[in-house]
Amino acid sequence: MTVTPPIGRDPSRLAALADDLARLAGRSAVEGPWESGAFGCLARHGVLAAFVPRDCGGSGDGEADLLTALVEIGETCLTTALALTQWAAAVRVIAGAPDDVRSMLLPPLARGDTRTTVGISQLTTSRRHLARPALVATRDADGWRLDGTCPWVTGADACDTIVTGAATDDGGQMYFVVPTAAAGVTIDPPLAMLALSGSRTTAVHFAATRPAHAIAPAGTGGPRTGGLATTALAVGATRASIAAIAREAVSRPALAPIAAGFTTETDAIAERLTDAARAGIDPADRDRLRADANGLVVRAAQAALTASKGAGFVAGHPVERLVRESLFFLVWSCPQAVADAVLCDLTAG
Q: 133-179: per-residue pLDDT in tens?
């Protein structure tokens, strides 16, 4: 029997995936990867299944292989990559649900037959300074009820369910799977952002909403922020900027050492990322890796802009887009330790 290798170890599959996503990237950046067909492309190439455990219809690829795929997708279409990470975060929560919920929800997600996304920033990096939690879960005779807001949800209006987290009335936290068509759910229009507006990120409001499923948090660590997936996308976005510099170097050889220098630095971060996926990494080192990747992706985009001269400063130019997208890493799922490190690096310059 032929065993298909994980997508992260199959260069031909990765190349075919990148080609298909590249053809859809223009539409994905405007319409979103759900409408453009990019998300369906991820399903056809087995990317969605790679994030789902084998006992629930997926291929259960290892983290190092998943990160390799995310780097490739991030280099090709960052809008699609962002949407995929939010889908994957929701799948990770569902994978910790009781067996009956896992077996019901995960197989159709692996096939791309249903769509989900995640809204947990209110538990991690967003609005935590407020006296009252942004989203509250109350239990009564009829079960759980959700009231409040998820301030940042990618693709809410394109998905069937949202996996969210809320503070409970006993001081704890719970996760919930909520159909977007449930009573009391209001989805704001997508935000017009500096970059990645095609992600259709917006706020979602809940008013006496009854979730379909409740999932207790696994362990005591709570949801992860600033994780390795975010760093993988920064590596991919950096490589897109390096490619732009290399294209300019064809007619201006003096730029070749610049591209080579950024490639060396990027490869070193990619190696640290792979090591972390295989051997684990403590929180402080993980945050330092993320901060290093943040600084690199911004510098590489600025170098690409400098190399492209005035042409790259015109709206619609590929480099203009890369510069805007690089700034997203400064605010996306950015724990305080990472933000502090980036600010220190900026002031040191």
A: 899 999 999 999 999 999 999 999 999 999 999 999 888 899 999 99
Residue burial 270-287, b: 16+ Cβ < 10 Å; e: rest:
bebbbebbeeebeeeebb
Integer Cα distance of 45 and 27 in angstroms = 19
What is the C-alpha R_g of the chain? 20
Look at the pTM and tell me if it is higher than 0.85.
Answer: yes
H or E element that contains 16: helix 11-31
129-140 pLDDT, tens digit per residue, is 455 789 999 999
For residue 344, pLDDT over 90 is answered with: no
Q: Is residue 326 part of a domain?
A: yes
Does 203 share its domain with 255?
no
Nearest to 196 by CA among 323, 342, 22, 287: 323
Whether 234 maps to a domain, the answer reads yes
Which CATH number covers residue 87? 1.10.540.10
- The pLDDT score that the predictor gives to residue 131 is 58
233 with 308, same domain?
yes
Cα–Cα dist 237/81, whole Å? 10
3-state secondary structure 17-73: HHHHHHHHHHHHHHHCHHHHCHHHHHHHCCHHHHCCCHHHCCCCCCHHHHHHHHHHH
Q: Residue 123: in which H helix or E strand, if any?
A: helix 121-124
